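Action item from last week, closing it out:
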Amino acid sequence: MRQENKKRIAPILLVTAVLIWGFGYVSTKRVLGAVSPETLTCVAYIYAGLAGIPFLIRKRRQIHKKILLYAVVLGGMLFVSRLLQVYGCNFTTAGKNAFITSSYVVLVPIMGAILHKNKISVRHILLAGVSLFGISLIALNETMSGVNLGDILTFIGAVGFGLHIIYNGIYVQDNDPVLIGVLQTEVTAVISAIMLLIRQESVTSWCFDISVQIPFLYLGVISTFFGFLLQSAGQEYVAADKASMILAMEAVTGAVFSALILHEQYGIRLLIGCIIVFSANIMANLEGVSGQKKIKIIEKKALQNTY
């Protein structure tokens, strides 16, 4: 394919990835009625790992001890963060899960500054404060007297995703990003298989149930694995600021699909909270467009997400 055609199709690839991830929240919520969060997380990553085997074989000569170590660290962080996110979705709505998860965008610069012992800018602090205010509007119950457990778990998962993004951005500097992405998927698949064996959970309730297997395959193969490939391919030919704007729409698509398919309702307070979080994400993505390295770190989402 000619480079001009690749540049023309690249934004479409990113939009497709965002739509896939948005629908992933709906698939997660639906299948949680039939299986536990651990089973969902584990089986989805096992399927993603199986999908990545051909790519791993193709790039096997580039594998070395250091990149394997990186993959183990990233895969472990990704597994824990995703498990927390799925647990959160089990106790809250898919739409709220999507917006609270997206708060990693404003958390990444602050956590990165702390880890690298750099000065935290006032802008970053303000954006984080704005995002947390929006999350509080999303998470507080109708009487404004308490927070849903699912929302808390989702936010902790978002912090985990933020840390994963930071370290992922560091590790890919001198390594093939696609290979690291595939390797960490395989690591999460191995961790998942071990967890399922430890839990000794019966598979007869869902193994032959097509209504469960279809969401598993979607979350593992389509959302986790191919969503990542679409993002990687699209970002190669899309400017950082434009890519960030497109990727920030993941939370919106998650909320829209949840409303249309799961019939989740959004009150005025919840809508205001979602708008505040989304606005903070957009401003965080646009900040520092001239500093492409910072934007690239923010853009390098781990296989997600997402979910």
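Closing note: The chain has a mean pLDDT of 83.
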